[in-house]
Amino acid sequence: MFGYAIHNNGGQVIKQLQPSYTANYLLVAGGGSGNGGGGGAGGVVTNTNLTLHSGGPAYSLVVGAGSASTSANGENTEVIRGSTGGGQQIVLATGGGRAYQVGGSGGGAWEPTSSGGAGTSGQGNRGGNAGGSVGDYGAGGGGGGKGAAGTNGSGKTPGAGGNGSASSYSGTSVTYAGGGGGGSPDGRFQRSASGGNGGGGNSSFNSAGNGGTNLGGGGGTGYPPNGKSGSGGSGIVILQIPTVSYSGAVTGSPNVSTSGTLTIVKYTGSGTYSP
Question: Which residue segment(s) compose the domain that 219 sits in?
Fold first, then answer.
């Protein structure tokens, strides 16, 4: 395959034919934090048609952090052709929603009769609704996961986080993007809820589990007045590049391995790849 690179030579634009090749990619965004409702998992995007041009601009791989604050969603994960300051965004996975909020997967709700946040189409699922009735304490809904919506709270029983989704892009099967468990209603009903498979944080009355690192899991939650809030887990970028085309020009210290005819480049923090 061939593509074109555009160069400016002293004001003269030169269009130069370059060889190109196709890579596969997996992007997982940072998970949202829990706060009464479970945190939503980071969005997940996979594809098999990222065209890379040999000798062309570097690609910036931006790995989203999980939310460590109840006032912020998880961060997006992106692939950008060129620099992060002015390059062309190629693909984006949306950060997970904190409790109540829209995100890659939505955060769960806690106030009685309130609804969980929506997920981003193709990237995740909604957070669970709160249980309980008006004037009473609710039971939190679980955060949404890539594979399933968060479970609704029911009466005084909090909902589990939605399960994530398995991928073999790393060379082995790994489950990413589970939602955080929903929160306990109050001190009379000290209940717990599990996070979803794929790094979702567990929840109990006095503690809150964090989302799984580099899995994009949503944070769990304790009883909100106790100030217990689980952080979302960070995301990841994985590239599968034909070994015959792999340039080896990387920054950010990714893990590099091979599987069959592919070189697998796994970024657990931000970096670049130059084709």
Answer: 22-275
